Amino acid sequence: MKGHGLVLANNDDTLAVSADGAFTFSTALAQGATYAVSVRSQPGGPSQVCTVNGGTGTVADTAVTGVKVLCATQSYAVGGTVGGLAGTGLVLQNNAGDDLPVAANGSFVFPVAVASGAAYAVTVKTQPGGPTQLCSVAQGSGTIDADDVASVQVVCATRTRAVNVTVSGLDGQGLVLQNNSGDDLAVGANGKRQFATSVAEGSTYAVTVKSQPRMYTQFCTVDRGNGTVAAADIDDVSVACATPATRSVYVSSLLGSSIPMLMRYSAADLTAQASTIAPATFVSFAADPKGRLVFGGSDSGRVYAIRQGDGIDTMSSATLGARGAVAVGMHPSGDYLYVVANGDGLLSTYAVPPATPAAPGVLQQKFLSGASGTSPLPLPLAVDPLGRFVFVGTSGQGIQTLPIRADGTLDDPVRQATTDVVSVVVHPSGAYLYAIGTDGMLRTYSIHASTGALTQTALTVAGLGVDGSTSLAIDGRGRMLSLVDTVNQLQ
Q1: Which helix (H) or strand (E) element contains residue 184?
Q2: Domain coordinates in residue numbering, the chain
């Protein structure tokens, strides 16, 4: 016997027993009387169950000494609940020896019961992985009384790590990085930055550039942006931003009155660098933000990819199926080219291949009402520097807005302004659009960030150098608006 409180009874005579050994009831029985020994109260602390052997009979002519009481300690289960488990491989342990693998949240019970009065101590032998988690035990130790233990709590939490990036070379505004296609990080200066959302150990991270800098246009690339989070913060992702070398200014002109020429001038001092006879007269240009080439739209319905060679420009034409003067615009990522011709009214989207100057591949074509005609000038076309919208001026339809989808293709056009225009340009911030109307007025429109809706502001200019102007341009920081009028004067 290990517990206390054992009480035996012989008929109505009771006897408290506190230890192993012989016992004798206080009331003697006459010869011939019956006896019936039983357990009136089982012992506790630890909880035990005592049973009587040879406990009944008739008293003879000698004392009864053959009654035996055997006591055994009770054993009880130890268990509890697991919550928050997302990984695999969790192993719990009781009293440093009873291992229990746990595969899912819910209740658990160790296979080996623990004797009443004995201690139990539940611990985590092996933490889960895939993803890596840290599990802790609450109410995991104590002494078994007279019931099962079901109050042990195991709570698991996934360990997360910060994803940091180091940005260098940033000179523009509006750079937005993204991790795992959802955690945006706006970056305004060089240095180390951290994404707001940590990533679980064992999970992957993928840092990309969501929006390239503008106001001053730059192109940023990510190095070591992909991987799997281990047991430390990610600190080796780097983002390098570079300003495309504005080495040349391209000008299309005529030699005499009939020979088209492509002239190249130094961007630094406008000194002549090269000239070559062109296959057609260029009426629009779009520069690749990655600094690889320039696309030229011609009056013959073709687009040419222009590269700088050893002082001589080489051009490869892409027959895009357009007729008439062609306007070209480039997506700020450099991955998509937008082409509209006033000969057939089609606005086409082309994927620019990484290996240039290969011909772009067509992704989509949209018909624009009022975009067909016979004018020798290209239709007004401007691409939002934030990559949200394409704006096209069409005859009798004013300015039409086409939202840009994630894959570079366009939604259906929506007419946003009623005044016909001859030139449009978007401010580098993406907040404003400037347009010269066929009435010679320069108008300013605010651009709705999500819909592209245009709202005319109070800024409208007429008069000096504006009436009859045909082309608009704006500098990379949005400080100066330039225009060329009908007598080829730059204002």
Answers
A1: strand 183-187
A2: 6-73, 75-158, 160-242, 248-418
CATH H-level superfamily of 248-418: YVTN repeat-like/Quinoprotein amine dehydrogenase (2.130.10.10)
Min mean pLDDT across 36-40, 266-270, 320-324 is at 320-324
Distance CA 375, CA 29 (A): 134
Residues 329-382 pLDDT 10s: 999 888 899 998 776 778 889 888 766 555 667 788 887 776 655 555 678 899
**37: alpha, beta or left, given left = phi > 0 and alpha = psi -120 to 50?**
beta
97: Cβ–Cβ under 8 A, 6 or more apart, which residues?
Answer: none
pLDDT digits (tens, 9 = 90+) for 232-262: 999 999 999 998 766 677 777 766 566 777 7
Determine if the peptide bond prior to 46 is cis (ω within 30°).
yes
What token pair was written down for 341?
Answer: 């011709």
Q: How many CB atoms lie within 10 A of CB 236?
A: 12
> Token pair of 20, please?
């192993």
Query: For residue 61, how many other CB atoms are within 10 A of its CB?
Result: 6
Backbone dihedral angles phi then psi of residue 180, each to the nearest 5 degrees:
55, 40
Closest to 449 in 3D by CA, of 187, 211, 241, 285? 211
Q: Tell me, which fold does domain 160-242 have in CATH?
A: Immunoglobulin-like (2.60.40)
| CB distance 423 to 435 below 8 Å | yes
pTM value > 0.85: no
Integer CA distances (angstroms), 69 to 42, 130, 295, in order: 11, 56, 104
C-alpha 456: how far from chain center: 36
Residue tagged 């240039």 (tokens): 356
* CB burial string 122-138: b at 16+ within 10 A, e below: bebeebbeebbbebebe
**What's the rounded Cα separation, in Å, for the pair 278 and 284?**
14
| Residues contacting 68, CB < 8 A, separation 6+ | 52, 53, 54
Q: Which two three-digit tokens encode residue 396?
A: 């009798």
